[in-house]
Amino acid sequence: MTGSREMIADSRFVVHEPFENKGKWNQVFGNDHPIQIEIGMGKGRFMMDLAAVNPNINYIGIEKYSTVLLRAIQKMEENELANLRFIRMDAEDICEVFDKGEVAKIYLNFSDPWPKDRHAKRRLPSRQFLERYDAILAKDGRIEFKTDNEDLFDFALEEIEPAGWQLEAATRDLHHDERMLAGNIMTEYEEKFSSLGNPIYKYIIYRN
Ligand code: SAM
Predict the structure, then answer these.
(1) 70 CA distance to ligand 1 centroid (A)?
(2) What is the CA radius of gyration of the chain?
C-alpha cells in the first residue's frame, strides 16, 4: 500500500522544494497576487474556503505532518484551486522559505498549545515565532490568530509587545462579536470547539 509520504511526493498541489522558491513564490502561481499563508493548516478546510472566495489572492498552507496534509491533498483532488498550494515543513524554518516582506498575511488557527513552560518557544504565537514572522511579512501585513484555548490566548497577548508588535483588535468571544465575526471562515477545529459551546478567541496584530 502506498504511504502518505509517497502520496504527498506525487502530488502536484504540494511544493516539494519550498526553499528553492524563496523570493520567487509569484512564479509558482504565475501572477503577482498577494500571498497569504496559514501555519499549522491541518486538513486545509480554512485555506480551501478562503482560496475559493478570493481568487485574486494566492494561499499557501503549511503543515508539519504528512498524515494530516494528505487529507488536504485529497480535498484538493476533488475541488482543485489554482491559487492554493501546500508545503510540508516545520514552521521553524519559515525564514528559509519566504523572503523579506514576501507574505501579505499570516493565519494561525488553533495552534498547538504546548502547555509546559519549557516548550513555550514552540508555540506558534510565541515571541520566537513572531520574530520569524517579522522577517517574512510585508510592512503593512497582519497576523490573525484564533484559538479556543484561553491560556494560549493570554500567553499570545503577553508576547505581542515584547516582540515589537501591536494589537489591532481582539475578542474573547468571536462568534458573538459582530464586528470581528464579519467574513469569518471557520476552521475544522473552530467548528468542533464552537459546537461544544467553547468561546473562540481571536486577535489581529501588526507592527509599525
Ligand atoms: N489550523 C487547523 C484548524 O484550525 O482546524 C488545524 C489545527 S491543529 C490543532 C494544529 C496543526 O498545526 C496540526 O496539524 C499540527 O501538525 C500543525 N503544526 C503544529 N506545529 C507546527 C509547526 N511548527 N509547523 C507546521 N505545522 C505545525
Answers:
(1) 13
(2) 16
Residue nearest atom 19 of ligand 1, based on CA coordinates: 40
Distance of alpha carbon 156 from alpha carbon 189, whole angstroms:
18
Q: Taking a C-beta distance cutoff of 8 angstroms, is the pair 33, 54 a contact?
A: no
For residue 40, give Cα distances in angstroms to 64, 82, 91, 92, 205: 7, 21, 8, 11, 18
Percent of the chain whose pLDDT exceeds 70: 99
What is the tens place of the pLDDT at every residue in 2-23? 688 888 999 999 999 999 999 9
Would the pTM count as exceeding 0.90?
Answer: yes
Q: Which of 69, 111, 136 to mutate to test the pocket of ligand 1 (most atoms within 8 A of CB)?
A: 111
143 lines ligand 1 (CB under 6 A): no
Whether residue 99 lies in the annotated active site: no
Q: And the C-alpha cell for 116? A: 509546559
